[in-house]
Amino acid sequence: MSVVDWLLDSDPAIRWQVMRDLIDAPSEEVAAERARITKEGWGARLLALQREDGHWDGGTPTFKTEAGEKWWRSLPPQRRGTLFPEWTSTAWSLMLLRQFGLDPASAEARRAVRLVREQVQWEHDGEPFFAGEVEPCINGKVTAMGAYFGEDVQHIVDRLLGEQMSDGGWNCEQENGATVGSFHSTIDVLDGLLEYELAPGGRPDVSAARMRGHEYILKRRLFRRLSTGEVVDTAFTQFSYPTYWHYDVLRGLDYLRAAGAAPDERMAAAIDLVVSKRDADGRWPLENPHPGRMHFAMDDGEGKPSRWNTLRAMRVLRWYQAPRSAAQTTKTPLERTA
């Protein structure tokens, strides 16, 4: 079985992206496959798990956020073993539906988003879900979800633009004294700003801010310290899925691809890393799965070939090796998955 056939022997959430990004299937066939997300597979399962109060199990993230995981890492090792983040909260569930490519115009998406909009609040201070809260990493995610699903997130975008740091990045610990950007926070904000730009009403100031953040990653060659050239964190070189709030090289490259960036030499080491991970069968493994409870598994386990990682790696390499025109790479939210 070829790698593409193996990818197509999967869930609609993967199949439609393979058809669009790897084999250039006719648009009507891609749309038909995408429409199946609401009726079968992971998308249908996840939609069915939403409660009538708008929540998915776990509510809105607290310990499920970047700050929460930092708290977990601060615990003595003997306490960490029984305490893990839960990835079943409302925010992470809605993020997965976006990554699956759930059509925002579908009746199922409109209902799910309406229930969240009308009933779900953040634990920080009771803010309505699509109003966001105070941390850039969270607000970047809310911007991505809101823009994708047609919610008004302009006020969050304005806040994010005011919080961009002098190095072009963002950092959730800024209110606690952080003075430099964080890869984790920056990629969340970049995802959100890109989704906002692709929605009707994109703004030049948003594009300019995103490009400064874009340069933050590129100047560091996607995983190295600007000061020393050392790898920032070995976890950046391991490809997980879902990524949640975590940054890694494949996530960074897939963002650049989605943004229609022109490949340049600052990406070369990151691309070499992606190539080095391909196994003898042309597939990429699941690495570094982030501990915590999930709704359901979407891969066969750590170290096993991962369809999500293989799809993302193959489309990144296709983009880097044969860049397309801006008109082909920059798509509307209904045509692509962030």
Short synopsis of the structure:
The protein has helices at 3-8, 12-21, 27-35, 41-48, 66-73, 77-80, 90-100, 107-119, 136-148, 154-163, 183-198, 204-219, 249-258, 268-276, 307-321, 326-329.
Describe the structure.
The chain is mainly α. The chain is built from 16 helices and no strands. It starts with a helix and ends in a 9-residue tail after the last helix. The C terminus is likely disordered.
Descriptive labels:
single chain; 338 residues; mainly alpha; 16 helices; 0% strand; disordered C terminus
Mean pLDDT: 89
H/I helix tally: 16
Count the beta strands.
Answer: 0
Fraction of residues in β-strands:
under 5%
Give the uncertain stretches in residue-range form: 62-67, 78-84, 324-338
Shape: globular
- First-residue to last-residue Cα separation: 28 Å
Radius of gyration, CA atoms, in whole angstroms: 19 Å
Helix fraction bin: 40-55%
